[in-house]
Amino acid sequence: MTRRMRIVSAFMLAVLLLGGLQLAIPAHAQSTSDVEPSNDAERALVAQHPNEWARMTPEQRQQVLENYRRWQEMGPEERQKVQQNFQEFRNLPPADRKRVIEGFRKWRQLPEARRDQLQQAYARYRKLPPDQRDRVMQRYQRFEQLPPEQRERMLTNYHRWQRMTPQQRGEARRRWGFVRQHPRALQHAP
After folding, report:
1. What's the first-to-final CA gap in the chain, in angstroms?
2. Does residue 70 have a pLDDT over 50?
3. Domain spans of the chain?
4. Which of 43, 75, 90, 114 has a beta carbon 3.0–4.6 Å from 37's, enabling a disulfide?
5. Mean confidence (pLDDT) of the chain
6. CA distances from 94 to 2, 89, 97, 141 (A)
7. Nearest by Cα to 25 from 65, 81, 66, 84
């Protein structure tokens, strides 16, 4: 796996794991200004880190408790996978870790509907055979190598294409000469 692919994978894992930890947990009735551990395991966690707990905002405390609750609900295999992913993240060079963290911050600022779309797209990507995933990654890397103005044009065209109806797309393909003819039709052509 290339360095770039490791960074992208680490970012996606961070997004899915850390973002998923937030999304998968139901809201608790307590207010964020009054966040306290609700059971012995949570109290033991706080007791192990009293200085860090004291410095946290109520929102940070709430997030820590929610993540801890999610951790407690995980099975052994899921915990092991999370630990492996965390270790993989820790093994990245500092500059790459910083990029992953910045990407995660951007992720959290996205609207929930957009995050859902991206998670679904990533799930579809993960289901692709390895050779297709490699081709997707190679295309993405080529896209990233383009000058910024060319990337912008491509994205603008992509969004325009997405807004087209199937009939408009078919017409565009015909106009641009991208319509494939069946091989038999080519044999009978004069």
Report:
1. 50
2. yes
3. 3-177
4. 43
5. 80
6. 17, 10, 5, 21
7. 66
Residue predicted with more confidence, 189 or 170: 170
**Vertex 109 angle, CA 159 and 157, to 5°:** 10
Amino acid occupying residue 152: E
pLDDT at 22: 41
Q: Which of 175, 142, 137 is nearest to 12 (CA)?
A: 137
Neighbours of 18 (CB within 10 A): 20
The conformational region for residue 8 under phi > 0 = left, psi -120 to 50 = alpha, else beta, is: alpha
Entry pTM: 0.49
High-pLDDT (> 70) share of the chain, %:
76
> Could you tell me if 66 and 25 are in contact, meaning their C-beta atoms sit under 8 angstroms apart?
yes
Q: Which DSSP symbol is given to 26? A: P
**Is pLDDT at 40 greater than 50 in this prediction?**
yes
